[in-house]
Automatic annotation (TrEMBL), chain B:
<dbReference type="InterPro" id="IPR036909">
    <property type="entry name" value="Cyt_c-like_dom_sf"/>
</dbReference>
<protein>
    <submittedName>
        <fullName>Sulfur-oxidizing protein SoxX</fullName>
    </submittedName>
</protein>
<dbReference type="Pfam" id="PF00034">
    <property type="entry name" value="Cytochrom_C"/>
</dbReference>
<feature type="domain" description="Cytochrome c">
    <location>
        <begin position="44"/>
        <end position="155"/>
    </location>
</feature>
<dbReference type="GO" id="GO:0009055">
    <property type="term" value="F:electron transfer activity"/>
</dbReference>
<dbReference type="GO" id="GO:0046872">
    <property type="term" value="F:metal ion binding"/>
</dbReference>
<dbReference type="GO" id="GO:0020037">
    <property type="term" value="F:heme binding"/>
</dbReference>
<feature type="signal peptide">
    <location>
        <begin position="1"/>
        <end position="19"/>
    </location>
</feature>
<keyword id="KW-0479">Metal-binding</keyword>
<keyword id="KW-0349">Heme</keyword>
<dbReference type="InterPro" id="IPR030999">
    <property type="entry name" value="Thiosulf_SoxX"/>
</dbReference>
<dbReference type="InterPro" id="IPR009056">
    <property type="entry name" value="Cyt_c-like_dom"/>
</dbReference>
<keyword id="KW-0408">Iron</keyword>
<keyword id="KW-0732">Signal</keyword>
Length: 267, 157
């Protein structure tokens, strides 16, 4: 792939101290598909890239601050906050984002970070779940993700998650909708190319939730998936559905080795 | 004799102009995907074809292809540049490629513009909602003829 506008050679250092791995050897399971995995950051304009290098310029950090308040707010019938059980996010959430989605032994299912947040809210706090792609959810995901910034994505693909991972892989290569386009049609076969004004990336999830200049808020992984499926003139899947959970696991595993960048900045 | 011949030609032209379009499910593709006869029964209009090619709500071909002569910003690069495609492709080949490129290029990412059934999770346009097949084709028979006429003008002259 990659004609005119492939990935650039810039390097991403955040706040002058967090050195991000934005290009990495592809994980073994991508053999034959990709040699190198590349962060979506490389496909954005210099101006957009710049915004992600400094937390004072990264508008996504405002939403992280909002989530600190939510973290400490007592809610629900159990009269607890996240802090009641997890202390500070710095102490309890380091490294968490890098391994999600992951198997939850007790529940016997693959869980996304969003599902785990809602499980704690409903089962442990007696509180209402956040809407799956809501601002509250995106903000909380971002607060948790920030604790893993710079750490390599390291999602497990074997053992109990294998079946779900295979399902996600099959979806990745399925040509949905009247335009008959798969995730792979755009993000594997054509990354680096422009499709109209859009510079196609590899569609990695290591930057999520992402702050988009377009709507000036944090955007979740499943909202992005939904938009991409809709754009093939297909019937989308619901955010939080088993299908999108499987797809998220698979897509996240394609980014193994890339640094957690959330909240990243995109146009 | 001569008069009769002219009359027959005129008659043929007249009957062609009122012909029924070929249904998307009845198009006859050759071994390499070409379609010999006009889908609408009418000749194409290259000016309208240029509009279909360039307009987002119509063919939106510019999302993937570049044509230097077009005054359209942000032309895509997923497909090949088409500046001289009228030199080396016949109308029949172009008609087949636009109607259903997969008969010419198996596995291509280029969508099929005159196909109505056989999709996975077909949606109602860009709403994300489900739709029942048969779907309306992405382009009409006449729009495809207009595109073919436009593409045939893309020559190195």
């Amino acid at each position: 792939p990659a004609l005119a506008g492939g990935a650039d050679d810039d390097t991403l250092v955040v706040n002058g101290e967090i050195e991000m791995t934005t290009k990495a050897d592809a994980p073994d399971h991508l053999e034959g598909a990709l040699d190198q995995v590349i962060s979506g950051w490389h496909f954005r304009s210099d101006e957009t890239q710049q915004l992600q290098t400094d937390d004072f310029e990264n508008q996504g950090m405002i939403f992280v601050d909002a989530a600190y308040d939510a973290w400490n707010t007592v809610e629900g019938t159990e009269e607890k906050s996240c802090a009641s059980c997890h202390d500070s996010p710095e102490d309890s959430m380091e490294g968490v984002r890098a391994v999600y989605p992951k198997w939850n032994e007790e529940a016997g299912e693959v869980r996304t970070l969003a599902q785990q947040i809602n499980a704690c809210r409903t089962e442990r706090m007696g509180a209402e779940p956040y809407g799956y792609t809501s601002g509250e959810m995106a903000n909380m995901e971002a607060l948790i993700s920030v604790q893993s910034r710079g750490m390599p994505m390291n999602v497990a693909i074997d053992g109990p998650v294998r079946e779900t991972w295979e399902q996600g892989k099959e979806m990745y290569y399925t040509r949905y909708g009247q335009l008959e386009l798969a995730c792979a049609s755009c993000h594997e076969q054509n990354y680096g190319n422009y499709i109209r004004a859009d510079h196609l990336s590899q569609g990695q999830t290591n930057g999520f939730p992402v702050y988009r200049l377009k709507n000036a808020k944090l955007n979740t992984t499943h909202a992005r998936f939904k938009g991409c499926v809709r754009d093939t003139r297909a019937e989308t899947f619901q955010p939080g559905s088993p299908e999108f959970v499987a797809l998220e696991l698979y897509v996240a595993s394609r980014g193994n080795g890339l640094s957690v960048e959330a909240p990243s900045v995109r146009n | 004799m001569r008069r009769t011949a002219i009359c027959t030609a005129a008659l043929l032209a007249a009957s062609a102009a009122t012909a029924e379009p070929v249904e998307p499910t009845s198009v006859s593709y050759g071994e390499y995907g070409a379609v010999e006869t006009s889908l609408s029964g009418n000749p194409g209009d290259p000016d309208r074809g240029r509009e279909v090619f360039s307009t987002k709500s119509m063919g939106n071909c510019v999302s993937c292809h570049q044509v230097s002569g077009l005054d359209v910003p942000f032309q895509g690069e997923v497909g090949p540049m088409l500046d001289f495609v009228g030199e080396y492709r016949t109308p029949a080949e172009l008609r087949g490629i636009v109607a259903n490129a997969k008969n010419t290029f198996p596995e291509t990412v280029m969508p099929s513009f005159y196909k109505t059934t056989g999709f996975i999770r077909p949606g109602d346009g860009f709403t994300g909602k489900a739709a029942e097949e048969p779907l309306p084709p992405l382009l009409s028979a006449q729009e495809i003829e207009d595109l073919v006429a436009f593409l045939m003008t893309l020559k190195d002259t």
